[in-house]
Design goal:
Layout lengths: L6 E2 L3 E2 L11 H10 L13 H13 L11 H7 L14
Helix pairs in contact: 1-2, 2-3
InterPro entries: Cyt_c-like_dom (IPR009056), Cyt_c-like_dom_sf (IPR036909), Cytochrome_c-type_DH (IPR051459)
Organism: Paracoccus homiensis
Keywords: Heme, Iron, Metal-binding
Length: about 90
């Protein structure tokens, strides 16, 4: 939502603005790479540098003033060893 305010309606989306979970990047990196509940995983669409840039933005904007600490190494460490292909049948 605008300014990172979150939303409640068809789904509940927590606010990014003033979110204490963003103080350290590990939380945001894991969610972006792997997804959670109704949020899809973006790890297959974004490279490590893009995820670092996104997390850094969330930590330093949207009413947040956290010290950015995401690195490409921390993103790579969260990625699964073998990316999951969403188009591949589970039981071929």
């Amino acid at each position: 939502m605008p300014e990172g305010g979150g939303a409640i309606g068809a789904g509940a989306y927590p606010a990014l603005a003033g979110n204490p979970n963003l103080e350290y990047s590990a939380y945001a990196v894991a969610l972006i790479v792997n997804g959670q509940k109704g949020m899809p995983a973006f790890g297959t669409f974004l490279d490590d540098e893009q995820i670092v840039a996104l997390v850094t933005y969330m930590q330093t904007n949207l009413s947040n003033n956290y010290t950015p600490d995401a690195t490409t190494e921390s993103v790579a460490a969260v990625r699964p060893a073998e990316p999951v292909d969403p188009n591949r049948a589970e039981h071929e």
